[in-house]
Amino acid sequence: MSFIHRVIPRRFPIPDVHGQLTGLRASQVSAIERLYRRRVPHDKVLTPELAKTMCQLTLDIRRPIAVVLTRRGLVQEIIVGTDLVLSPATSAQFRAGPRSLRGLRLIRTQLRDQPLSQETLTDLAYLRLDMIGTLSVLPDGNPGHVHLAHLLPPDGANRLCNVLKSVPFHECVLQFDRFIEELEAEVHAARARQSIQDGDESAILVSASPHGRAEQEERLIELAELANSAGVRVIERIAQRTADGHQRYLLGSGKLKDVLIQTLHKGADMVIFDQTLSPAQSRAIAEMTDIKVIDRTQLILDIFARRAHSREGKVQVELAQLRYRLPRLLGKGTQLSRLGGGIGSRGPGETKLESDRRRIHDRITHLERDLAQFAKHQGQRRARRDRHGLPVVSLVGYTNAGKSTLLNVLTKSQVSAENRMFETLDTTSRRLRFPEDREIIVTDTVGFIRDLPKELVGAFRTTLEELHEADLLLHVVDAGAADVDVQINAVIDVLRDLGLEGIPRMLVLNKCDRLPPDQVGPLCRRYQAIGISAIQPDTLRPLLAELYAHVSRMSREPTRDVPSQPQNGEAALASRP
For residues 294 and 307, what is the distance between their CA atoms, to the nearest angstrom? Predict the structure, then answer.
């Protein structure tokens, strides 16, 4: 007698159970998996049937069981044990942001009746769940007390969540659908009020390094200026001293969670690290949160992308961005493979990651060819200028030191000179006329900054090559900066990397009008510099006299003898007798 076996497909596909499954029997795992078939009405936190089944299974395996429920009442995930970590698939499907909740609630059983721990409340805030709760298990396997907590909208009191009074499970009468609707309305209203008041994107700044507190605070102040220059409002600055060496998240995982919780609760749109994140750190943090996390290099690249106006500047910025992005591309696996057609091209094919990398490599090659053409045109312009025999003075210095303002005053130009970092990206040249019909070319260049990203140095090398043709470098420094020495040394380091240490350099302390009059003289003597204020033309006479003297000496010399560079980089004029 033969039997015909009919395969009956499962009505409900069974996802995996996550957590601590070691030591469980197959029958116990199957019983836990059947929890996926349960449904919870919209108005219930948890049904009595599901609660009792979870309690009995917990008593059987002697381990907590957590169910993650959607607002439709479906069981999205089951987690065995004490770790509350959502799977990547769930995190991708249910995203949380500073203006919304994740749309999931988590209820976990516990063998002893205990209130919600601080770790559980941290998970509530970090995962941005609708609600989190624990259900105690009685000795007979029935549900005991239920402890619930939910997030609070930002109210200025710095309270993250509200813990409800624990009650026996059968006395829990919370109307979940109505409760979550009101909570979402409060969250959206709070964010709307904040957006109307604040407007731009907002961020929390983080510095994590082995340096001292004072140095970290200085760097965070500069990072805040960069953020403001990019149109980002700074909500808070956090400095964390860490051990020297590589860490997976740059910060510890616990401290990073605290930062992300503050970001969500205070309504910030992103976290900005003062340090450059390695590709591995970027991937690890991206797997940990849905919040936008960028580093200092990305912020500077974004500013450059906003400010570049010329074709050459745009090409250089795009090249720098692509070089930064290339090692940080994330792959999705072989499911996105491109299959070839025809004999000999079967197989997994080219993955999405490989395709993206190939496109970036091709684009980089194209942009490098464009830069080579720009360099050729620059060489032709320099040749025409050399035929006229005009000396060239290049303005160099830290970003926002006042170089463009000085150029406008000296040459009566109208170059954009707003008080913000990296206002100037494109090289600008203007003529400055002296008595006796003597003229020089004054060139304004992109400003420097400490730890200038190598991607920018490489991409802007074509622009910075203009400095090699200078007869004099006018090093402009913000006299009112809190870290004058740091800014001077940062510029000297970049000039040294570019091979410009042999060109004469004149140090000019700008913005002296912001200092008390009795401090200007000693400061200029200390750095052997000329003190000016670019917005006060009367203060420029000593500078113009020095420039005229330098031009006069050049006109008497048949060839320019390049002097040696002072070691401290603080000479007012390297060629001055």
Answer: 19
Predicted pLDDT of residue 363: 92
Asked whether the CA dihedral 79, 84, 89, 90 is positive or negative, the reply is positive
Instruction: Render pLDDT for 518-547 as a digit per residue (tens, 0 to 9).
Output: 999 999 999 999 999 999 988 999 999 998
Which DSSP helix (H) or strand (E) runs through 203?
strand 201-209
Same domain, residue pair 156 and 291:
no
Work out the burial of residue 108: count CB atoms within 10 Å of its CB; fewer than 13 is exposed, 13-18 middle, 19 or more buried.
buried
Give one word for 158, left, alpha or beta, with left for phi > 0 and alpha for psi -120 to 50: left
Instruction: Give the number of domains in the chain.
Output: 4
Please choose, from the candidates 268, 269, 328, the residue with its C-alpha nearest in 3D space to the C-alpha of residue 297.
328
Domain assignment present for residue 551? The answer is yes
Residues in the chain: 577
Look up residue 422 and give its two tokens.
């990296």
3-state SS, residue 44: coil
In degrees rounded to 5, what are phi and psi of residue 323? Answer: -65, -35
83 and 188 part of one domain: yes
Q: CA 117, CA 100: separation in Å to the nearest integer? A: 24
Rounded to the nearest 10°, the torsion over CA 124, 128, 129, 134 is 0
Which tens digits make up the pLDDT trace of 395-413? 999 988 999 999 999 988 8
221: containing domain? 200-303
Q: What is the pLDDT of residues 197-248, one digit of tens each?
A: 555 788 999 998 888 888 889 899 999 999 998 889 998 999 988 876 557 8
Q: Give me the DSSP letters along 417-469.
A: --SSTT---S-EEEEEEEGGGEEEEEEE-PPB-TT--HHHHHHTHHHHGGGGG
Please state, in angstroms and rounded to a whole number, the distance separating the CA atoms of residues 314 and 321: 11
For the chain, the first-to-last Cα distance in angstroms comes to: 115
Rounded to 10 deg, the angle between the 296-307 and 311-325 helix axes is 160
Query: Cα-Cα-Cα-Cα dihedral of 304, 309, 315, 319, to 10°?
Result: 10
pLDDT band (50, 70, 90) for residue 289? confident
Closest alpha carbon to 62 in 109, 98, 105: 109
What whole-number distance in Å separates Cα of residue 440 and Cα of residue 430? Answer: 8
Q: Looking at the structure, tell me whether residues 46 and 191 fall in a common domain.
A: yes
Distance between CA atoms of residues 351 and 355, nearest Å: 6
Residues 390 and 270: their CA atoms lie apart, in Å, by 49
Asked if 482 and 218 count as a contact pair (C-beta separation under 8 A), the reply is: yes
Q: How does DSSP classify residue 91?
A: H
* The two structure tokens encoding residue 277: 């994140």
Task: Output the pTM of the full model.
Answer: 0.76
Distance, CA of 413 to CA of 405 (rounded, Å): 9
The SS3 call for residue 147 is strand
Same domain (yes/no): 322, 250: no
| Cα 92 to Cα 97, 126, 161, 268, 289, distances in angstroms | 12, 15, 24, 20, 10
Residue 344 within a domain: no
Both 455 and 503 in one domain: the answer is: yes
| 190 and 227 assigned to the same domain | no
Kindly state whether residue 153 falls inside one of the protein's structural domains: yes
